[in-house]
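Throughout our pipeline, every protein is held as a single compact record rather than as scattered files. The remainder of this section carries one protein's record, kept here as part of the documentation.

===
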Amino acid sequence: MKYEEKYTVNSFDVDENNHIRPTCLINYLQETADHQMRDRKPSYYDFFNEGKAFVVIRMSVEIYRQIHSYDEIKVRTWIVNAKGATFPRYYEVIRDGKVIVSAYAEWAVANRNTGKLCKADEINMDNYDMDQPLNLSIPKRFRFPKETEFFHVGSHRVFYDDCDMNEHMNNANYYNMLWKHIPGIRNKEVTSINIRFNHEAFLGKDVEILMCKDDNELSNDGMAEEYFGFKTDIDDRRNVECIMGVRSIKRNYTYMLRCSDGSLYTGWTNDIDKRLDSHNKGKGAKYTRNKGPVELVYLESFDDKESAMSREAKIKKFSKLKKEELIDSRVNILKNKY
């Protein structure tokens, strides 16, 4: 059995490419786990009031398709049998019936007063949904070779809004903190994240961020074109280590043109500027050849051409009134840079 929650992705959760930010993705995963604990009992707050705290040890995330604002998604989570003092958990994100994100996390439960880790037989999770493990392509564990050369890329002071109930930086906040340092990130999308947490970052501490270019010997992410390694230190003590896989964004668009006679034409392309130029030179679709000049009035972005073509076919069946409503709707990205 897998626990499931449904969400509509918030417009504030995405970057300028309309791709979900890493921290926001992790928030949806962990929020779903928190809901499972709340509904199945004991809840996170039950543990907290008993003087116990869940602490993430490591997390591995594979992103097969990007998530966009207003996407309707389902997030599933479940546990498997704990071993020693390690409590594994898996996650899936589903959109349109397809798994677009898979993830694995290892958690520990610490005594908040002594810092001692609780063993599996000391924590009752019998009511939580359990299922089979997932097989991810990226490894659950990694270690940077000693000869890996890192260089300093920035610092981050831990402020009050970074922290959770345990008075240290919330683990989800690390992802954006590292991601934004990837060179050329405005034109790239994340395909995988592999992170290990070593020591906590407490309120007021300065986190020093170092980065390296990885050669994929550690990541094994077949979707990525580049790999960046990170490590962070606090007072010369290792805080986290992370590898992120990224690739260049390959955009596919569904678009609408307003022709000189006021009619609307719908099409798809992977190069909107070139396609628009072709239409205005009379080299585009047969429909627009004698109806120029044309004006681009609607644009919607997709990760693959199949989705763009499917959207094109759907819009072509709309009435002109419904197309005009779509042009004025919030899904039209023309006001943003593409």
User: Anything to note?
Assistant: The longest strand covers residues 98-111. Residues 252-327 form a domain with the GIY-YIG endonuclease fold (CATH 3.40.1440.10). Residues 35 and 86 are 20 Å apart (CA to CA).
